[in-house]
Every structure is written in C-alpha cells, then in structure tokens.
C-alpha cells in the first residue's frame, strides 16, 4: 500500500467510478424522470393511510438515502433559549442537509415546574412547540409531512387518557396535525433498487402518570403485533432489497415487557432490523449509549437481565454461505443525545444497505460543512456479524465494497475532498493512503456523495482497530473540515468497546426484569436481619453480647451481637417489623397523579391504583416498574441503613455500659470503706465518668451523624413526592414519611443511657 498509486490503479478506479455513476443515475421509474428533486409520495388509488406510507425518493444519488433524528427537545416556559436556539439553528441546517425524513423521538416539551419537582402538562409549551416547528419547516424548505414526532414520557405526564383535554400532543404535534393517531406509524422510502422501511412506535403509558413514576416505555401485546406487521409489510414482495429501521423514545433497557412477557427486542430480532433509534437518556450518563443485540437461545443466558458490554457475544459462531441464507438475528440500538442541553442532531444514512450515522453538537453554533462517511463503516458502533459473514463468504461480497464513500453537506461549493487511511500498528498513526474523492454528478440531485476507488482486500486484518479513516473537505472559501478519525474493518470484525459504569447502569441493565429480584432481595435481607437473630435469642441457648464478642472475636460474633442487641430493644424491633409488613401490604402514598385536581391514586409496591375521569373503572397497578425510583431508594438508602444504625446504637450502649461499670468502682469491698474515702472516690468517679462520656462515646456521635445523613436523604425524598403528587405528609403518606424517623429517634433515646 503506497501513498502514490500507479497509473494502472488509477485507470481501474476511473472505470469503477464510471460503472457506479451509471448504476446510480439509471432511471427506474417514470416519476424519477420528471423534473424536480427530493422525495415524492407515490400516487395510489387507495385512500392515504399515514400509518403505512410510501415515499419515492427522487434525484441522485439513488444508492443512498439519509434522514435526520432529533430528540428530547424539552421546550420549557422556564428555559426559552431551547426553543429559540432550535428555531435559529435547525431550519437552516435542515435546508443544507435536505433529508428525506425528519424524526423527532420524544420529549417535545418539558412539563416541569421551575423547581423541577412538579411534572404535568403545560399548554403554553405545546403552543410554542407548534409555532417553532411551523417556522422550522418553512425555513428548511421541506415538506412538513416528512416530519414525524413521537410522544416521550414528558409529553405524557399527567395525561389520564389519549384524546382527553390534557392530551396536547394530539392537538399540537405534527403527527396529530396530520391525523397520525395510531401508536405505530411506518413510512417507506423507496429508491430504484431498495426499500427503506422506517417504523415509529409510541410506547408511553396509556394512562399517563405524573413523574417521577413515569419513566419507562410500556409496549402492549397489541403494539408489538402492529410493529411486527409493519416491519413485515414488504417481506412477501420480491425484487428489491429491504432495510428496516425502527425509532421510538425509550431505550430497550427502559422498556417494560408486555402482558405476555414479550418485548420490543424480540420483534426487532425477529426482523433483523438494522437499527433502533431512540432518546430519553440524554448525555449526562455518557456518550457511548449504544448497544448491539444478538439472538441468544440459551435459556440460562443472563441477557434477560443485563449485558456487560456494548457488543453482545453470539450464542454460536456459524457461517452460512448458502444463497439467500437468512441473516443473523441482530440489530443495533443507538440512543442519541438531547437538544435540551447538548443541542444534538443526528444524521442517519443508508448506503446500499450499510447504515451509518453522525451525531452533531451545535452548542458552539452552526456548521458550515458536515461530513458523513458511509463506507467503510465504523468498526466500533456500526458493524454487524452479518457483514462479517458476508465477507467470509467471498462470493457474497457486494459491489459496494469497491469504493470509499461519504456524504458532504455544505453551505458553500466544495473544491476538494480527500480520504486518508492511517495504520496504527507501528504505534503512532502512519498515513498509508491518500486519495482524492470524486463527486457523483447528476442533473437532479438531493445531495452530494463522493467516492474513491480502493483495493479493499489490502486492508484485511484480524484487528478491527488497526486501520483508521479520515476525510478532509475544503470549500471554496478555503475552510477545511475533517471527519472524525474512526477505525474500520473491511472483513466485518467489531472493535470491542466497554461501557463506563454509568453507561452500563442505564444501557446494560434490563430494569423491568431486575426490579422484582432486587425488590425481594431487599425484603428478604431485612427479614433476615430482623428474624434470624430474634429466633436465636428466643429459641437457642447461644446468646450473643459484647462480653461474648470480647471473649470470642470474629465477624460472625460481631454481627450476631449487634443484631441481638437490636432485638432486645423490643419497641424498635417490633416497629421495624411492622413497618416492613405495612410496606408489603398497604399503600405507600395517596397522590394526585394527573394534571388537574381529579381523583387521587394509591401507590403500592406493585404500582398505582387510579381511576380515570372518563370511566369509573379502576386501573390496577399501572406504573410498574416505574415505581422502582421510589421503592428501591427507600429500601436501600433509608430502611436498611436505619435498621443497621439502630442495631449499632444498641450495641454501642452495651459497650458504654460495660465501660461504665468497669469504671464505677462499685465493689462490695468498697461498701465497708470509710465515708470520707467513699466521698473522695465518688468525686474521682464523677470526673472519670464525665471524661468517658466526652471521649469514649465518639462512636455514638458518628452514628448520630450518619442518622442525620440518612434522614436528610429521606426528607428530600419526601419533599420531592410532596411536590410531585401534591400531598400533605400527615394526610397522604404519614406512615411512609414519619415511621422511620420516629423509630430511630426512639432508638437514640433508649440507647442514650444505661438504664
């Protein structure tokens, strides 16, 4: 591989480019030969159904389509800059990019009070959203009908039912204005040789609770059936290849199972969608919020609960080179950043079936030029095992491997596009190839794609991170724009990227599956802490105390002593046990869960029991596993620490009592001593006891400080719930808010003396 290529190689590249140009400019339908560019909806004799729409993409380059994704706008009356920046930046950028679709994947409005504690719908925010989107569509020059927006959980805060007076999404969203009423909407972008199916899904709660217990997507069996139907709508037709992409608001880690324990993941794997585009998590948890899913039929697999790394290892490594062999069941999940703080936008391109994306940050302002490499793909976040299988079966390698390609969007004419490949094996990157890329020219053009011929076989390597690609674009003003330097692997090997602990926490854990195991682990832990020492104390001759610990030191003896001392404070022990039984069997809260002052709901460990305004029917246990944001922190940061602190305070009293008695000097032989000697000893003892109280009870002071930390956390949790659900702690959740503080205060009182 040399930087300067031979004339024969250049001639071969020119021939390849000519063939590619012919393949992308050959007309395939009457509508493509008409004047104009962009996308045109197919004319049909049937009434238009927005849930199943077909758009014929007109103009070159025919081999590539691209769309734009935006997410988590959070337009707020308290933060007008979000809408102002959106209006100023997005319209001109969309005009420059000229996408075939614009997808807005949820959380269009914020629905929060200024202190962020009350979460319900605000019509002013929806009016602002409608006005801003009208302006953006006008300034971009795009047909407004190619915009698709979805509900997020913020758009559903406090909405008792769809179609009601507080369902502002149906009135002010773009989908609502075009009558896209269903929870599933699909649109197919059709080119001469390929169909690109985009299926959008709304999995928000049918009965929208206020936050914070409105955090998860809740797909139903009916929704999954509709998604399955839309993804398979072209499967029976032959002739054109199909690329399938789905989009929604919630990542799969924050999507619940359906009534029959099916999931969105099952449907996406069944159809081997190329990607699932989503939002919801923003960027505060990390930038690698991507996840590769692959089918695993192993019943004992842990993937139902969590996935440790971005790339999931396949259950078996088989290669099927048969003609028309089914592709491996897999797909990528790509969560994107948010507009709220990051001012993020994503461009997704499909180049002959190869799906790539570019995330753009507009915090520093608009971009004059944007470069999106479409082939070769980034080996970290875009490759699939199907590409590796395809390359392993050499007769299946497509013609698309013959060139390096990229999309270029710019406000100014482009004078030069150069691709460079670096080899990192020597240690530092060494440029081993530099070649000028040529623009595909066509009379009717939607955008600019550049390509350069290369000998892709020269870059085969067992390491997916050895070779790196970067593209430089120079416009007529002399401005240089570089694409991100990224690794690639022509033989389809994926570079292994690990999550940070925060990224794993939000992307790698399937929280719906984990909620009840974690819940019952906490419950059984508390029952064990309370009941086992009590059983040993009552029914066993073995008694544990500070004296037995001193004589037989060991961690088991220490734990047993501490917990048995808690059992000896009977009021506290029975209080904790009764409180735990209450949490398992009774309502925790009685709160206002909808936007207006309607009926209150009851929150239990299994969810909310609420009654909607249009029906007397109660909805049992909605908002599960969403309630985990209340239940699990209360268990792990309040109840369990309080039980342990109470035991520690009781044990500390035992230590103090033993030291006190050892220093008291109350011996029978002292009873016969003289009165003046006793008086002097008593004064000496008072001095020593005072000194001991001040110095030796430091452990108690530390424990009291820990108590203050725990109850500050509990107080803040109660404050959030009071504001969120408009509750009075004495009327609407007295046991939840007061039981633990009272129990520990009583423990502090009882352990303050040795009596």
TrEMBL record:
Domain Calcineurin-like phosphoesterase span(s) in chain numbering: 66-283
One family name in Pfam for this protein: Metallophos
Signal peptide residue numbers: 1-27
Protein name (database record): Calcineurin-like phosphoesterase domain-containing protein
Keyword Hydrolase applies: no
Domain named TMEM62 Ig-like: residues: 366-493
Organism domain of life: Eukaryota
